[in-house]
From TrEMBL:
Its cofactor is heme. Pfam families: p450. One of its GO terms (cellular component) is membrane. GO terms for molecular function: heme binding; iron ion binding; monooxygenase activity; oxidoreductase activity, acting on paired donors, with incorporation or reduction of molecular oxygen. This is Cytochrome p450.
Amino acid sequence: MDSLNFQLTITALVLIVLWHFLRKKSRVLDNISGPPSPSWFKGNYEQVFNPDAWGFHEFLAKEYGSMTRLHGPYGTNTLYTFDPKAMQTVLVKDQDVFEEDDGFIKGNLLIFGEGLLGTLGHRHRKQRKMLNPVFSAAHMREMIPVFFEVTHKLEVALENQLQAGSSTQEVEILSWMGRTALELMGQAGLGYSFDPLTDEESAHPYSQVIKELLPTLIRLQFWQFNVLPYVSWIGTAGFRRRIVNMLPWKDLHHMRDMVDYMHSVAEQIYKIKLRAFEAGDEAVASQIGRGNDLISILMKENMDASEDDRLGDTEVIAQMNTLIFAAMDTTSSAMARLLHLLSRHPEAQKKLRQELIEAKRVKDGQDFSYEELTALPYLDAVCRETLRLYTPASAVTRRARQDAIIPLLKPIIGLDGTEIHEVAVPNDTAVIVSLSNSNRNSDLWGEDADEWKPERWLSPLPKALVEARIPGVYSHLMTFLGGGRSCMYVIQPELVELKKSNTIITDSGFKFSQLEMKVVISTLVEKFQFSPSSKDSEIFWQMNGVTAPVIGKDNHPQLPMNISLVN
């Protein structure tokens, strides 16, 4: 049987290439300009998706504008866009037509399980419906003390390290941000403690696994998107596992081991929580989080749900994997990036510290409440500007499930000289939505769109930006996407009217991840001075699935930074 399945696998790979080679290529998109293809087999794929792709994305925006045609694998056409109206159609209006790529869904199903990242359609909507009550504004307010408690452990650890050595030390801040994000999600999200945050030796292995997950996945991404969907059905799960074990492929084996570890940890935590629920309310209340963590709330909601709405055990475990991944990789990247920017902009760091010190003086040094934390204007500005200019994920891909029309806010000129106001998209066409180019679109954000300027958020935003109606769920940004597959960690409190420069701004969303970010940054900047390390000129932020800093040719994610105590 294994021999037969192996033959089927090889046959399937041959048929994939043969089918793409022989099928008739649609000529509908040929009038849209774009770069030449370096390869029939991969097209522009590896130019778009590689750790050093920043220059190519910038080139596409400047040379071809907000809608361009790329060459996909096997001689296919791919669209690349950051036009606001096109994004609204793809991600919101026609989101059931433009779904996640099969490779994305199949890959996430294998990595995280049957959670939000690995499901489509009704099943995805059912999971979001079950998770919506978990991310309420009331729950966020309850989590603030937990966030500060964890962050103060980090503060003490860094202070002890400085007091035990020289007054200014080089610290690998990315590791500390990853560990802190893991413990924040552990306690507030899972009711579980991963890391005491005492010293470098106490780090939980999970933090290292997540740090290496996306850099490994980006090296496997071509095969995930363009081969996995065609072979994932062959044989049994056991047979496919044996094939993976047999292949002399280091990255694939490393991915296998990381996924095994993630699932074993999630299953262990889930079993602990199940036993507590079976023992009664007193046992639940005695756990970390006292039963108010996200997964405990989800489990309570799930027990009360109807049979049709209830999630299975594997789906709940998958949500745990997804929560940890989203908090650790995305949030830790954003927090590390912000500290890196503050180290390079000492005037902004000083201004932020002054705001924090003055706000704390009024409270006699006590921790901020939810309302107080979210009302600090410059802290909010540096967070928003960092998430705008340096979105952790740079692009997403959708695939048309039928012929469709994508309208454009800004018409483009076709190769034949005609003005194009909408694009006819053939079935099975991939559409890449550039989040980073949308957030840096100078037509909307102004000529200084490529500059890190927190002050832009302290006055009314450009009229062109507001009128463009960017479909993102947060602050005219595409950082957290939009539509039914936007970032789940969006809190929808009552509308809050904020008066800034006599302008009323309505803020209807607040991010779970940004709340973590504000707690950590406010605590650290008040206490510590951050400055560039001697290796700063060699630091390069790779464009992985989530951006990660490396030094020179060493692809191991790291971010050294000098820190000292504030006088």
